[in-house]
Amino acid sequence: MLRDITIGQYFPGDSVIHKLDPRFKIVITILYIVMLFSGGNYLCLAVGAVFTIGAILLSKIPLKMFVKSVKPLFIFLMITAVINLFFMSRGNVLLHWKFIKITDEGVHTSVFMVIRIVLLIMGSSLLTYTTSPITLTDAIERLLSPLRKIKFPVHELAMMMSIALRFIPTLIEETDKIMSAQKARGAEIDTGSFTTRAKNLISILVPLFISAFRRADELATAMECRCYHGGEGRTRLRQLKSAPRDYIALGVTALFLAGVIVLGRLF
Amino acid sequence: MAILETQELTYTYSPGTPFEKTAVDHVSLKIEEGEMVGVMGHTGSGKSTLIQHFNGLLKPTSGKVLLDGKDIWADKDKIRDVRFKVGLVFQYPEYQIFEETVYKDIAFGPRNMGLDEAEIKRRVHETANDIGLSEELLERSPFELSGGQKRRVAIAGVMAMEPKVLILDEPTAGLDPAGRDKILEHIKRYHERTKNTILIVSHSMEDIASFADKILVMSKAKLFCYDETVKVFARADEISEIGLDVPQITKVFGELRRRGLDFGKEVYTVGYARDLLLRKLKEREVR
To answer: Closest to A184 (Cβ–Cβ): which among B17, B88, B95?
Structure first.
């Protein structure tokens, strides 16, 4: 049930994609997003799709997982498609019935947007599937470190992020447990009318909040016991080192991006 | 007739992902009405997964769970009734407490059953008495109580539904010896009064040995053995081999046997051992 949530989930493995330096992976993902949004025609999108599929194949993560990552956003996709379909007034009219007007331009943009968003979700899921949350925040900290010059608390931000990420699975598990316990006492959570379900939510939220606060307290004590005092002069256990393959990956991405831009201009 | 029965029960977590794991593997067993059963197994042996099938919190990947001879999943909409008949107390149940007063928290289950106020009141008072919570505690906030008291409030919350089968997952985990004895004592008393079937999960043999009629041992997702307490502890060596602890007194008598003093294999409680030794000593004196 709750365990089925895949957003932010990490799939251990040792493919080329897994081994890439996380800093490069973040930069590549940003370039990838730029790539998807800079191309205005199907050819550009096709290039983006080739890039996505290539990366997915290299990661050796089952395609099913990517389908799963798109699923929760299905309604959002549908709304996007419908809005584009009905509210695009440019182009030749294909169908005109009372106030509904569908144009070829509308069909075109809605299909285009849906493909673009699906690719966007798949590509960014690839980042979280292949990078553990801890290395991801490490990388973000390093990428943002120039901001320290203007007194931006980069380390503290990264620490907060890694703690938050670290506790997502714990809290999900906890929620699952509390839900089971209350269900065992006959609370209707998956079934029953909307009001009873809403009422029973209290029986889950109260224990969940209590345990979250307790955990926060325990963690703060544990950190203090180990003399944690922020980022000043801290060294790290895992040093991020870039390898030739990182530069190659970045190069390939840049090439694709350039290709998309050129194709967008030509056609 | 067996009150609870499983037939080739199998459960797999996250099938089709890299995290796929079979936690319960083709388990078939029968639990008779009124029995006190100890469930043992290592962490990750599948015992917690197994018990969550008994009240329909988990749906078997394959196989069946029968309650009173009826498949509990035959009618999906009736699964809530199964939960009232088979009460499950989770590990560290005090973390599920949420009401403002002890009374209200114990009443949560009975209220979900749709009972009237008078009946709820009767049950809350009766179970509070069973589990050893005094009357004046009922109007206090559960969050002011001690750890052991909170645990008992949570157990009472399930007992108050008056389930025919009560399952407790490690009811004594993390308690001091006094708290542990108290809880076990009260569970025993509840069993004597209601004659209901009780399953207690524990990895402490010491806890279970003294009062379980039967013992169920899980190992690596499979049913290792399920038999009368005496017979299970007679296999102390095998049980040690799968990484479970046998009661200290059993170990002592095992060592005595190895050194040539055989008193039989059924020693698993200190009281029994004392009586046995006294008897043997007397026989010697007579001779």
So the answer is: B88
Distance of alpha carbon A78 from alpha carbon B169, whole angstroms = 45
How many angstroms separate the CA of residue B221 from the nearest CA in chain A? Answer: 20
Q: Which secondary-structure segment (H or E) carries B48? A: helix B47-54
Residue B122 pLDDT exceeds 90: yes
The residue among A182, A163, A177, A167 whose CA lies nearest residue A223 is: A163
Residue B36: φ, ψ to 5°:
-110, 110
- For chain B, the straight-line distance linking the first and the last C-alpha, in angstroms and rounded, comes to 49
- Of the CA atoms within 13 Å of residue B180, those in its CB half-sphere come to 12
Q: Give which of B45, B44, B70 is closest to B56, Cα–Cα.
A: B70
Q: What is the ipTM of this complex?
A: 0.84
End-to-end CA distance of chain A: 47
From the list B77, B80, B90, which residue is nearest A180 (CB)?
A: B90
Model confidence, pTM:
0.73
- DSSP E strands in B33-146: the ranges are 36-41, 62-67, 70-71, 86-89
What is the distance between the alpha carbons of residues B258 and B171, in angstroms, rounded to a whole number?
35
The percentage of chain A sitting over the pLDDT mark of 70, rounded to a whole number, equals 97
B64: three-class secondary structure by DSSP = strand
Distance in Å, alpha carbon of A105 to nearest chain B alpha carbon:
41
SS3 for B88? strand
